[in-house]
Design a protein that fits this description.
This protein is of the alpha/beta class. Helices cover 41% and strands 19% of the residues.
Length: 457
């Protein structure tokens, strides 16, 4: 993929960029390694001051940045504003709490025969962040804020269709006061990730992206014995039991499926509804999906904008066509509107069988799969059957059902009577083919730390 800004609402190429040459990449690697040597010793209060200043900058530039994000990847302007605001909150969270999250963990010294014993969290070094286009600000900040507060430095390889956002982020932290070299963008294509990752100055990597990309990066990192955190795809179940508040479940289901134009790893994708409430839920859900306004993402009245790439649109069209061709019923949508850009109508499919690709593949667009189940055992079996295990949604007022679902869902996250959302205060990540490691909360800031045992006799 060329490094370019292509407006997904029109298909028009607005700006192209030459990838960094070998010399430019080398300069940034040298700077990152040199900066880490001094930055790792900076005071946490000083890092917090820089982080707050960076957050203030981003907050002040919120409208400009939101418009840039919408132009590059097509999310609605309202969603882009919200993403920008979330980044500000995330930065401030780690500025406020890093000191306590990284405090020494004291052990019982008498038990281990010492005068003092504790674990200390220390930074690892330059970390490569391979990031996707769907949340081009938040995906980066939720790595960068904790990593920088822990004393690491970052190198960003962003998706090739959001180059202006990548360059903005590459300058933002320096403008906020962080020393040059603490966070830099590498404007390179995916084919050049391997030599950067193999470079001895890069000590770890975090990737948010596809399963294929995760496998490739993990394989390289494994060969080099370098720490990895992977946040990959998801096919999140949305289980609705008879005791659920159906009004809330339907309303939230629509938002959970079409957030970010349906292009979110934690979007609810498989709606698993108990037979007792299936017909009612389906009727209301389809009606609400049909009411959504598809259009220009810069228009404040738009609910669903375009998919970010032409390939993404083609992938969604093929998955829906495969399902329909094998007997699935299309309850609404199922077509691309006749207009420029990479738009797809909000779609609901039912009568899905294991022979269809949508049964176990992630659909990265505004397409919902609707299933009818007879009991909680059938709901759990269907929810857990996919190779993914990122988030999950559960709707029930029954405490016994709730505990069973929380315990038995094979997922990194379970949200009860609500939609899966990432919060700085809670760990974020999955199991199975959805990846490993955790972002956010205390777990996220400690992922790229050496947990050093200290014993003092």
């Amino acid at each position: 993929m060329a490094i370019a800004t292509i407006n997904p609402a029109t298909g028009e190429t607005l700006k192209t960029f030459e990838p960094f040459g070998e010399h430019e990449v080398e300069e940034r690697l040298v700077l990152a390694a040199a900066e880490f040597g001094t930055y790792r010793g900076t005071d946490l209060k000083q890092r917090a001051a820089w982080m707050r200043s960076t957050a203030d900058l981003l907050e002040g530039e919120r409208e400009e940045v939101a418009r840039l994000v919408t132009t590059e990847m097509g999310k609605t302007l309202a969603a882009a504003r919200a993403e920008t605001a979330k980044c500000v909150l995330g930065m401030r969270h780690y500025a406020d709490h890093a000191e306590e999250l990284l405090a020494d963990e004291v052990a019982d010294a008498m038990v281990v025969g010492a005068r003092r014993a504790y674990a200390r969290y220390q930074p690892l070094g330059p970390v490569l962040a391979v990031m996707p286009w769907n949340f081009p600000l938040w995906q980066v900040v939720r790595f960068a804020a904790p990593a920088l507060m822990a004393g690491n430095v970052g190198l960003l390889k962003h998706a090739s269709n959001v180059p202006q956002t990548a360059l903005y982020l590459g300058e933002l932290f320096t403008r906020g006061g962080f020393p040059p070299g603490c966070f830099q963008t590498l404007l390179i294509g995916s084919a050049r990730v391997e030599p950067v990752l193999r470079d001895s100055r890069v000590v770890a990597v975090t990737l948010t992206g596809s399963e294929a990309a995760g496998r490739a990066v993990a394989s390289i990192a494994g060969g080099e014995i370098k720490k990895t955190v992977l946040e990959l795809g998801g096919s999140d179940p949305y289980i609705v039991m008879p005791s659920a508040d159906l009004d809330a479940a339907v309303s939230t289901a629509v938002t959970a499926r079409v957030q970010n134009n349906g292009q979110s790893c934690i979007a609810a994708k498989r709606f698993i509804v108990h037979a007792d409430v299936y017909d009612d839920f389906a009727e209301r859900f389809v009606a609400r999906m049909e009411e959504l306004r598809v259009g220009d993402p810069m228009d404040e009245s738009t609910d669903v904008g375009p998919l970010a790439t032409e390939q993404g649109l083609d992938d969604v069209e093929r998955l829906v066509a495969d399902a329909a061709g094998r007997g699935a019923r299309v309850l609404c949508g199922g077509v691309s509107p006749d207009r420029p850009g990479w738009f797809y109508e909000p779609t609901v499919l039912t009568d899905i069988t294991p022979e269809m690709r949508v049964f176990d593949e992630e659909v990265f667009g505004p397409v919902a799969s609707l299933y009818r189940v007879g009991d909680i055992d059938e709901a759990l079996a269907l929810a857990n059957i996919t190779p993914f295990g990122l988030g999950s949604n559960v709707w029930t007022a029954d405490e016994v059902e709730r505990e069973r679902l929380i315990t038995d869902l094979a997922a990194g996250m379970v949200f009860v009577n609500g939609m899966v959302v990432s919060y700085p205060q809670l760990p974020f990540g999955g199991v199975k083919n959805s990846g490993y490691g955790r972002e956010l909360a205390a777990h996220g800031i400690r992922e790229f730390c050496n947990v050093k045992t200290v014993w003092v006799g």
